[in-house]
Amino acid sequence: MALLARTAAPRPDDGVTLDPARPLRVTHVRGPLTLAVVSIAWMRSLGDEDRAALQARHLSADEAARAAELPVPKRRVEWTAGRLALKYGVSAYLRRHDGVHVRTRDVRVDAVPRGIRAGKPMVNAPVQVGLTHSGDLAVAACGPRTLGIDLERTRQVPRALAELLTPTAPGCPLLATMPLSLRWACKEAVLKHFGFGLRVDTREVELTAWRADGRFSWRPGPGLRRYAPTANAARLDSWAREVDGYSLALMWS
Question: Gene3D superfamilies given for it (predicted)?
Answer without folding.
Answer: 4'-phosphopantetheinyl transferase domain
